Protein 1
Amino acid sequence: MIVRHHMGEYPVRFVGTNELNHEGVWLADENVLRLWPALAGHDPIVIPSGETSKSMARYEQVVRTLAHRGAKRNQQLIAVGGGVVGDLVGFVASSYLRGVPFVQVPTTLLSMVDSSVGGKVGIDLPEGKNLVGAFWPPVQVDVATDFLKTLPERHFRNGMAEVWKYAFIEDWSVSEQALRPEANLASLIKRCIEIKSQIVEEDEYDRSGRRAILNFGHSIGHAIETVHNYEDYLHGEAIAIGMVAEARLGERLGLTLAGTADRVAACLTGAGLPTEYGDWQNPGLIEAMRRDKKNDGEGLAFSLVTQLGECKLTTGIAESDVRAFLESL
Amino acid sequence: MIVRHHMGEYPVRFVGTNELNHEGVWLADENVLRLWPALAGHDPIVIPSGETSKSMARYEQVVRTLAHRGAKRNQQLIAVGGGVVGDLVGFVASSYLRGVPFVQVPTTLLSMVDSSVGGKVGIDLPEGKNLVGAFWPPVQVDVATDFLKTLPERHFRNGMAEVWKYAFIEDWSVSEQALRPEANLASLIKRCIEIKSQIVEEDEYDRSGRRAILNFGHSIGHAIETVHNYEDYLHGEAIAIGMVAEARLGERLGLTLAGTADRVAACLTGAGLPTEYGDWQNPGLIEAMRRDKKNDGEGLAFSLVTQLGECKLTTGIAESDVRAFLESL
């Protein structure tokens, strides 16, 4: 599969773990290294597992390590791990020596179907998620589904949140495969990457609102992650809660077909994902939403499903309406 | 004047300080604010003066301040100051919310003739200068030469180092104007920007070696800055020393016309710039040069003047030869 972007294109290849033989500087998630000890042969820079690695402190540590290792502008970085490693290493690649090539080797379901494709990289600030980053496409994405054999169940479900998102926002037919993901996992992953890459090609820089539909559930989901300091909830868990809440918000605003939120909730519950949240009155949620990148200055922005398989960015929703809505949940 | 780049183009305008009325978030050098108090009306984020502001710590502080102020993706940043502020704010602009537009308002001679044009932005690491950054062109450059009236003499000379560099590397005829810069300063600045923007347009991403000629004197100059923790020497002072030393190195290697180094030294001495250095045996110099972005893995790289008005990137110079050369100085 080929993904096109403004500066060129990159292949997404489905490979075995034994085919991962890139030249360059390897950076890998510590859990992945423990489970796949052969990777240690590449002398990787070890990235601690978990969203807290998407921090300024970790970013600084990694670029300084590259400087110490004497990594050159013509050497590529190979990012082996989930979305955290891909986003962090991608931002490092975009900025170390003003930019070096990098290869994405996603090892989680979530990063295979979502974050490894599309060129968005970045880190979090205490003020909010992904507030610093770049558009920096990889030069290649290598999907080795073997990695999923060692993925903990909770992390598999985490990825399913993004799989279901594609069904909700763009192609309801994905839901059939999503109900039985193990039946043909590679084909499901391929379908998700196809949907994502097509949307990204139509609006690489997030300008027309087209790419923003990938953010369904993320205004509220990111706010939950921020309020919890990127602990407690995995990304997919937070956006599962966010998708249900945003579908309810859409219904409240008359933008979403009645009954959609319940169906979204049923799908996610069936996938073993959380859909409820206990702290909707936390003022930190609105504060975090205020810093969402989709906002254009007037009110808050949400990518709202209009009906199953269709989504649209809506801006300018009054903060007071959102606050009242959250308190009613 | 219009500068073209891969994504579009931007105008360089010569304006009065009273014409600086951009909408957006202002960020300004603290010394400039003290000397031009009217700028405080824009409620700028204050950047402490000096190269040490091109640090990861300052970068983090600025992006977090923008998040706290609620700066949005459609708001531009206005960078008012010298090369430090332009490079720092430019890197912030390239990465805050994955990129926002920014305007360069250079207030020093050095930033007017060099760093505000060309799109290179970045910060330093303890390991070396400009090791982290981006290619992120401004949307506009506003040159207000009025600012030079309050520029300390040492900083004016600092800028003259880069003015002389254009004479050495590309157009010896610049030397006539450089001998009497005050005679027609605006015209001299314009000529320098023309030379730089033409070189940058030919090789925006530093790939062919063409843009690298702008780095004459910088392999050694950056190493001196690094060894001194970006204190003691201003950038132009360090590269004045670097240009003389690299011209001597070029002569030693038979790549530079004999007698060139003495003429380079005479021009810079005449401009009140340092050309000697007392610590050539410091092993930190070679270590810093090893991390220079121009290196491709084999030996060290230098942009060497071949004769006055002509320069060429040379890679693969053995470290041992450079060390022996430095010790002979």
Protein 2
Amino acid sequence: MTTRREALGLFGTAAGAALLGSCFGTGAQADDGAKAAGFPWPYHKLDPDAVAERAYKGFLTGHCMYGSFYGIIGELADKYGAPYNSFPFMMMKIGAGGVADWASLCGALNGPALAISLLSSEPKPLVDELFNWYQIEPLPDYKPKQKVRVDITTKTVSHSPLCHASVSRWCEKANVKAFSLERDERCAWLTASCARKTVELLNAQADGAFKAAFPIPKEVQECRSCHDKGSALEDTRGKMECGTCHFELGTQHPIIERKKI
Amino acid sequence: MTTRREALGLFGTAAGAALLGSCFGTGAQADDGAKAAGFPWPYHKLDPDAVAERAYKGFLTGHCMYGSFYGIIGELADKYGAPYNSFPFMMMKIGAGGVADWASLCGALNGPALAISLLSSEPKPLVDELFNWYQIEPLPDYKPKQKVRVDITTKTVSHSPLCHASVSRWCEKANVKAFSLERDERCAWLTASCARKTVELLNAQADGAFKAAFPIPKEVQECRSCHDKGSALEDTRGKMECGTCHFELGTQHPIIERKKI
């Protein structure tokens, strides 16, 4: 077991260099030996606002991951029955608060990523678009039409797909506490926003009209030019905004001034 | 749209204070209006090693989230048929590389969290245990019995449930590139490790013998004492190791010396 002392040693003053100077990724795509009959499930175009309303309601029952996933697949289940209505929706409840309140991946992204994967034969460009949109767009951008619990006026840019950064930025700007109704309502609206955006993307792909509008941010591309596959270091893969955690790049890094940009 | 300049302004020199000084979380648990008949699916005790072997094989087909989820639910499907064999396993492939290579939540945790949620009426303590074990235990801790592609000897402590930190630490210690076979194999073994651990936890819970052995780290508890529900600030919730990103706490924070511990 490594101690906190060792952990903080590694991620201390030269933290940017330490983490950016190492590597990660899934490696080359495995061949698709797991292709199954009847997969993906067929997608029928949906009304984004209807999905958003269902996602909001779903949040009130089972939080962000459940709400966003049920908003999409539940709408298909209501309209088309099987196989959509066979899905054990309740399993998605564990995604609340970045999975079991660990504040890791936002449940309003985790649910839609799985919904896209279930419904699209080419899911990755849509997930990329959704996540890039999420980390750069002021959110929530959808107000439910049904009765809401409290009005929300604050929007923030998360600069991250992670629950912790996303919610932290919002709460700070809105000046509310983590366990407030306002924060909970913001996450409900965000769940509706993400489900709605997801269906817009799925609809576009179904029409053969999908085109990415939210590319990987320029600054992340700059990091990747030295750290991604085929680069000089080839030591990382990822699309999260680097500067959200790597605010100090360390004295060994060629762009130590980045933090002052 | 907020610029990187603004983002880095917020997360700059006083980054720790900025992020720790804000707030997040899922709020009070929603009442369980979404209870469904036949949920959770019944759990039958499984052989952890058999599950690990299936998870390893699954990784080779569909990567970490698919492998870890299929290792568990696929084993139940083979032994007991319905409802387990009705699950659209392929949807889990999107979780590879921290979801679509975003390097967020490790797929070898995302898959098991959903499997636990599908099989347990009290999933959260098991997910907490799995995640706490993952961020503090030297991993991978299981070598597949079947033929492996390359031998792996390096183990690392992730100090995070996130793909990026977990894999970065391992690659740095093993001194291999992100797109190497060694890194890919490490993730395959880790997928087996996580599926195996998950089944040990499910078995213990089924026996009424589950007892958490990996509590939230002391240092995280210390952070939570000022930032969690009921504390002076009550501005956060989460169980990821704080110091993995908050290596600089800022001059306004009472424990600015922490980074030197």
Protein 3
Amino acid sequence: MSVFDEELLDLKGKVLKMGAMVETAIRDSVRSLVERDKELSKAVIGRDHQINSLDVEIDEDSIRLIALRQPKAGDLRFITTAMKITTDLERMGDLAVNIAERALELSEEPLLKPYIDIPRMSQLAQGMTRDALDAFVKRDKRLAMDVIMRDDEVDDLKHEVLKELLFFMVQDPTTASRAMKISFVAQYLERIADHATNISEMVIYLVAGKIIRHMSLTEEQSKRK
Amino acid sequence: MSVFDEELLDLKGKVLKMGAMVETAIRDSVRSLVERDKELSKAVIGRDHQINSLDVEIDEDSIRLIALRQPKAGDLRFITTAMKITTDLERMGDLAVNIAERALELSEEPLLKPYIDIPRMSQLAQGMTRDALDAFVKRDKRLAMDVIMRDDEVDDLKHEVLKELLFFMVQDPTTASRAMKISFVAQYLERIADHATNISEMVIYLVAGKIIRHMSLTEEQSKRK
């Protein structure tokens, strides 16, 4: 294995590591909401700087790799895609912090209703994150497309959550403040899924040279039927 | 001027052009909401593919530039930053489409109340977009910091809008659906401003090698007093 191949392997490893940290942040932030665990919320917020540091590290490694090794086009695209992906991952980490902040606030007030859709959204978002990065390092177009297809389910769950919360607010206006905060959590999770979808679109562009946006994908799927 | 310098100038021009298109999309989407102008909303939605095309074009130009000219570190960082910035711009374009979609829906229902804070948020977001890109092409750290400082004003306006809408919903639950849609518009505008802030943070990192996140900036400002 050449030095460059080793360095590329290192880079992939760091991207996967950053993805794992983000997945953990999503899982823990939602768990801290459901279990009303203030310490866990604070832990998520406290660990975010580690995600940001890895973003900078990967950026620096990438620049160095490009400048020193002058990789050919295929590897060059892979590295610049890694740089874009870590930007999405860093934003996903920020969204997990936002969830943890709302969890802290909500733990100060009585529980509005048991959480069912939000934990489901969280599981989907975690899976999409993991699979989007897997698709990237393995250059797996099918897996990337699979992630994009899951975005609809997250959107549908978000709409369900918002509808349900609207119903609460209309029935009993004293629930409005809590309902709004919970609606924010659902929107943060939907945005996390959106980022995983964006990563997958970048993977498809990298592998197939095609722009797949969600709309185009649905057309692609219809053609295959 | 060398061929490379010309190509770099071209790249800057395209980034500014993409920024101008996004600025227009923001302005028109909010105007279509305030003026209940369905045709304008549809025009914003229809033009989005042009923003996406420019994103791809800038990406391809950047890859070609790096592969063919093997730029030294400073120029290399500038080009990879351009690639990240266009990702943010493309997302901002998507958010303008989201605003236009809500505008279409709201034009089907009676006006809830005159729009005051939302047009203000829109002006701020447009200005932040323009200045963030100016700061990038001119490598202007001060201007980038100035954009980041404006983010607080947008956040404050968003909170005002949400508070006001909550009040409406509590007073008269029949307003809930319209109030929610307007709250989404405020949140889209806040996210647009966030993207402009992210671009500015990337400019500061490019120019000064420093990570400035909003919190660090407030500390920096305090030290100077």
Protein 4
Amino acid sequence: MDPDAVAKAFVEHYYRTFDSSRAALGGLYQDASMLTFEGDKIQGAAAIVAKLSSLPFQQCAHAIATVDCQPSGPSGGMLVFVSGSLQLVGEQHPLKFSQMFHLMPTPQGSFYVLNDIFRLNYA
Amino acid sequence: MDPDAVAKAFVEHYYRTFDSSRAALGGLYQDASMLTFEGDKIQGAAAIVAKLSSLPFQQCAHAIATVDCQPSGPSGGMLVFVSGSLQLVGEQHPLKFSQMFHLMPTPQGSFYVLNDIFRLNYA
């Protein structure tokens, strides 16, 4: 399993899901999962999905610029660091963002998101 | 110990050291430490310091815009996510950057950097 390939596949899946059916992101989080979104701290899959679903835009399209990944230690986790831009419907210019995910392995051989930190990069 | 206060103190210490005596950053890394700098992957404190020391500028000044942190799991680690800007001597405009650190506790009650990912945010 090539970690870079796993990271890239995760990131593509994450933003494709975000842009098409945000509520479906719940399956990627668990009760211990944490999201810090523009400084707001949220814990647990249900609360995270509620937060993401409540963002004040309906349609958006993420474009990924870079994906970096590193193993996070002996627990088999993986850190994924993304930069990109976010185009909202009705906005002329895309917003640049950075986001990091800490992916942890599940017993089923998949990953869930334990940590998620998102920031817009204001120009 | 307030994690946000620890993260903020670490970040201030890190960039103050970077901007004054980059070689002294070696004390914050260990052999297992990883740095991904603009896509380049480096492992180990000595190689990381060599990389940081070889960057093609002598003087710089980091300005921190945001610091977010989360616990990274049962190992007592902490994820620190930073956005800010980097002013190089002789350059008119600062460069925006994002960086994440995964801090792990040491037996002495301090932290070292296990993971470090840095990206410039091109406008």
